[in-house]
Amino acid sequence: MRWLTEAGKDVPPEIRRALIASLHGTLPIFAGGVFNSILIAGIVAARLGQPLLIAWFVAEIVIGVLRLAVLVFSFRRAEAGQGTPTDVYLLLSVVWAASVGYGASICVLSGDWVSATVACMSAAAMVGGICFRNFAAPRLVALMIALSLGPICLVAPFSGEPAMLAALVQIPFYLISMRLAAYRLNGLLVGTMEAERENDRRARHDALTGLSNRDGLTQALDAVGRGERHRLALLYLDLDGFKAVNDTYGHTAGDRLLKAAAVRLKGLLRAGDVAARIGGDEFVIIARDVDRAQAPAFGERLIREVGAPYDLGDGMSVTIGVSVGVALTPHHGEDLPELLQMADAALYQAKLAGKSRCVIATD
């Protein structure tokens, strides 16, 4: 299944996951395909009454019920943030395609051309849906089309009708063209998703340092449920002496310093922490599971490691200080604006006290 759902080379993991998720479709789309195949199988079975066709009708019902059960179960698991039986659902989709091909081929061999026409038209209609709904996985599309229409090619020479030999040419060409269409649509979709991902990344990240910007910081905090905001610390950092570096060595050196400081900040983050640049030399960290007793130690570590000397190249070595203001949830608020305001006030106090200090906001 992993091979069948391969989206292409160098596809980012998050886009790959989105493509796999799209294969589940929606209940209305699913219901339309299942209802059609069960209806056709039922009409043909009632018309001819042959055991093989009755077996097809029963198989369509069983497969449809199983696919529906797995689909509903998957949606519920996904909503709860849990794993889904994607392999099982895709396997049942492949079995369903084989069932459609089986029914169409049995109808061709039956000699009843009304049943054969209805069944083959239904199979062809299903192929269109297979291609344009599952093009996130072109290999899966090719297999399902081959199973839906391929059996008609196999039985065409035994149908007793020379005109059916056209299927030996028509269906392979149809399979190739739809497969190529699926690959083309897949490429367009992946390209669009990558562009959207890059635009979203640029909208939420600082272009110079690669850290989050204010919008990214807001989104990161919004991702933390209000019930989980009882042990967050917002640390507001300002680089003491940065203006002097800019004035002495120029903006290029200042940019190098900001990039180097951002690298050090990233190295100090733990899982779940977020760092952002929200101004010229102003940075913010949102740290999880940090209380009033732990915040000063974290702040002092930031002052010590971010404030260590920097080698900016071309013989330039500079030393700056770092002042830190800290706001805590829920003592100083839970939303970003109020936390920033309280941390900024604490930062101001740190600078008044002599800079390169960490001050926690008053309640």
From TrEMBL:
Q: Sorted alphabetically, which CDD domains does this protein's record hold?
A: GGDEF
Name the keywords, alphabetized: Membrane, Transmembrane, Transmembrane helix
What transmembrane ranges does the database entry give? 21-46, 52-76, 88-107, 113-133, 140-158
- Domain of life of the native organism: Bacteria
Signal peptide annotation: none
Q: In the UniProt record, does the keyword Transmembrane helix occur?
A: yes
Name the SUPFAM superfamilies for this protein. Nucleotide cyclase
Q: Which organism is it from?
A: Methylopila capsulata
Q: What is the protein name for this chain?
A: Diguanylate cyclase (GGDEF)-like protein
**Ranges for the GGDEF domain?**
230-363
State whether keyword Transmembrane applies. yes
